Amino acid sequence: MADINFYIQIDWIYFCIFFGAMLLMSLIMSVQSSRFYTMHVVIRKFSIIDFEFPVSALELATFIKGIFKLPPELSKKSLRALKGQLLLDFLFMPAAYGSIFFLCMKVSLKMVSFGHSLFAVLAWLQCIAWLCDIIENIYLLNKIKPEPAVSKPPVHKAYQILEAFKWGIALTGIVCSVSAMAYYWLDGRYSQNSFSYLLIIILEIIVFGFLKKITAKSEKEELDKFQSAVPK
């Protein structure tokens, strides 16, 4: 096991599969996020980004307490949606980080010298981002209770650093690999076989966009339904 290759030959079909799975779970998570409500002076919506990037440990605790202060039915639905998304995220992670891994590794195999090593490192760094995401989700799931404790400043600071590592590694991999791929395509240095996989990826994005548009209508109906539950 010690001689596992640092560079892995990967067929584009695996990227298509992982990318498609990522889009499908993104769609489900988008529907779940439409049900995120909390009580903070008034009943208001929040996003998973608000939840993952609180300004302070107190704000995170306030977000969670506010969910339990909602009218019972609305509180139940919001909690179920939030916990469901954090749990589904454990399946989303391998699809998302796997897609970035495959993309970086494909660029690595296309390059020579420094770029060859750099993109391979970026690919394997996604494992660290994945681990950070797992720790983050466990931390947040353990926080969801009627009276969440406000984390001490060092703990919250460590959480913020964890978030910075996760997003920094993932975004660096995406931006660098997509930029490199775009350069090779514009320069005409691409395999004819890869064109069919590009069409699959474009088709997946089109289908995702179409389904997203449909679910956006149902999200609006869900929003109106929840707002009608708010006491006047």
Strand order of the largest sheet: 1-2
Radius of gyration: 21 Å
Count of separate DSSP helical elements = 7
Strand content: under 5%
Biggest sheet statistics: 2 strands, antiparallel
Distance between the termini: 64 Å
Which parts are unreliable, with pLDDT below 50 for 5 consecutive residues or more?
none
By helix and strand content, what is the structural category?
Answer: mainly alpha
SSE order, as H and E? Answer: HEEHHHHHH
Mean pLDDT: 87
> Helix amount, in percent?
over 70%
Shape: globular
By DSSP, the count of extended strands is 2
Structure description:
With about 230 residues, the chain is mainly alpha-helical. Helices cover about 75% and strands about 5% of the residues. It has a two-stranded antiparallel sheet. The longest helix is centred in the middle third of the chain and has 39 residues. About 25% of the residues are buried.
